[in-house]
Automatic annotation (TrEMBL):
It comes from the Bacteria. Pathway: Amino-acid biosynthesis; L-lysine biosynthesis via DAP pathway; L-lysine from DL-2,6-diaminopimelate: step 1/1. This is Diaminopimelate decarboxylase. InterPro entries: Ala_racemase/Decarboxylase_C, DAP_deCOOHase_LysA, De-COase2_C, De-COase2_N, De-COase2_pyr-phos_BS, Orn/DAP/Arg_de-COase, PLP-binding_barrel. Residues 40-282 form the Orn/DAP/Arg decarboxylase 2 N-terminal domain. Its cofactor is pyridoxal 5'-phosphate. The modification N6-(pyridoxal phosphate)lysine is found at K61. It comes from Sphingobium indicum (strain DSM 16413 / CCM 7287 / MTCC 6362 / UT26 / NBRC 101211 / UT26S). Keywords: Amino-acid biosynthesis, Decarboxylase, Lyase, Lysine biosynthesis, Pyridoxal phosphate. The keyword Amino-acid biosynthesis applies. Homodimer. The lineage of its organism: Bacteria, Pseudomonadati, Pseudomonadota, Alphaproteobacteria, Sphingomonadales. One of its GO terms (biological process) is lysine biosynthetic process via diaminopimelate. Its EC number is 4.1.1.20. Pyridoxal 5'-phosphate binds at G240, E276, P277, G278, R279, Y373. The gene is lysA.
């Protein structure tokens, strides 16, 4: 459920007409709903109601906007981060360091120092060399780093290949069959406090079966680690639960179904459970609002050319991802159309032969379920300005990231003196 609805023939974000935002901010623009964020947190938390004191660490990579993070901080969420930048963003937004988990395969020594200085809750290690580096950094600071190893359980998540993370050929984590040796070596590293086990098998999962298989393997590993004398106190079960993008497809499992499965599988583990939802919290809480530039006739269907592009919303080009496309002021007619952006790439395509509202030049369209992996993956390709972001709460709204002027993009470059001094040749 989201709070983008039609009232008197016009789409509203909560109580704010989206056309009003377009008129004042311009398009394309991301719009986020506070009410939807709040509801999604409540529904996920309710799904985990049978679990004692879970740490819900929002996956910052899904949407790192400071206003979004501050909203989630006030709702009591922690953060799952994969860079020092995300860590500092989370802390600046009000998320306490003791609710922050640091994941990722490429943590640098400098990033480790920053995280140790801040006092984060846990590092999720992804290799033995990383464990050795972290131990050295922690010792140099007179600290002990709380860690878990991220285990690669070799479970196929059944999702898109580019967002699958738990198969043996993926770059994440250590192989399940090497876990005991890795933990034994980590125990001998004096800068580490080995406290947990972590797993995350992929994103946009629409079936609980692979998650359950991975969690069963984690439970068995915890038993074996404890038998070898390890004090395992935490288990990070990752995120990845899918959200509905295409209304014609079956709904993904609900947080209630997920929570019931987790409760059943983890009985007797005697650990603090940790979760890393990202898309589930912010996906349906955001839309990308765009304006139709023109419509041109194609060989089979018209091309609806909008002012949003692949640099604003990369998911369709990168993952062949499906986003529902709705007219802000629907006319009651529908037809097949190709929706494309202005970037000079054939891949700058949002939909082909899509049955959708009939729109014309100047009309506004909304790309739904764009709150996750939208603005955070934007770029300035084709020298296009980064997309602004707006947060709505009831009848109030504010720009929470402004559109930078093109001049700022140009001024970011510098021309070496030897080029400037040569002048222009005839």
């Amino acid at each position: 459920m989201d709070h983008f609805t039609y009232v008197d023939g016009a789409m509203l974000a909560e109580q704010v007409p989206m056309a009003d935002i377009a008129a004042q901010v311009g398009t394309p623009v991301y719009i986020y709903s506070t009410a939807t964020l709040t509801r999604h947190v409540a529904v996920f938390r309710e799904g985990l109601s049978q679990i004692h004191d879970p740490l819900i660490a929002f996956a910052v990579k899904a949407n790192p906007n400071a206003a979004v993070l501050a909203t989630l901080a006030k709702l009591g969420l922690g953060a799952d981060v994969v860079s020092a930048g995300e860590l500092l963003r989370a802390i600046a937004a009000g998320i306490p360091a003791e609710r922050i988990v640091f994941s990722g395969v490429g943590k640098t020594a400098d990033e480790m120092r920053i995280a140790l200085e801040q006092g984060i809750y846990q590092f999720n290690l992804e290799s033995e060399p990383e464990a050795e580096m972290l131990s050295e950094v922690a010792l140099s600071m007179g600290r002990k780093a709380p860690v878990a190893y991220r285990i690669n359980p070799d479970v196929d998540a059944g999702t898109h290949a580019k967002i699958s993370t738990g198969k043996s050929e993926n770059k994440f984590g250590i192989p399940y069959d090497r876990a005991l040796a890795s933990y034994a070596a980590a125990r001998d590293l004096p800068g580490l406090d080995v406290q947990g086990v972590a797993v995350h098998i992929g994103s946009q999962l629409t079936d609980l079966t692979p998650l359950e298989a991975a969690f069963i393997k984690v439970g068995a590993l915890i038993e074996r680690l404890r038998a070898e004398g390890h004090d395992i106190r935490t288990a990070d079960l990752g995120g990845g639960l899918g959200v509905p993008y295409d209304p014609s497809q079956p709904l993904p499992p609900s947080p209630a179904d997920y929570g019931a499965m987790v409760t059943r599988i983890t009985q007797g583990w005697n650990v603090r459970l940790m979760f890393e939802p990202g898309r589930l919290i912010v996906g349906n809480a955001g839309v990308l609002l765009s304006q139709v530039v023109r419509v041109k006739q194609g060989a089979q269907a018209p091309f609806v050319i909008v002012d949003a592009a692949m640099n604003d919303l990369l998911r369709p080009s990168l993952y062949d991802a499906w986003h529902d496309i709705r007219a802000v002021h629907p006319k009651g007619e529908r037809a097949a159309a190709n929706v494309v952006g202005p970037v000079c790439e054939t891949g700058d395509t949002f939909a082909m032969h899509r049955d959708m509202d009939v729109v014309g030049a100047g009309d506004l369209v909304a790309f739904m379920t764009a709150g996750a992996y939208g603005a955070t993956m934007a770029s300035t390709y084709n020298s296009r300005a980064l997309t602004p972001e707006v947060l709505v709460s009831g009848d109030k709204w504010a720009v929470v990231r402004a559109r930078p002027p093109i001049e700022a993009l140009i001024e970011g470059d510098s021309i070496p003196a030897w080029i400037a001094s040569e002048g222009v040749q005839d």
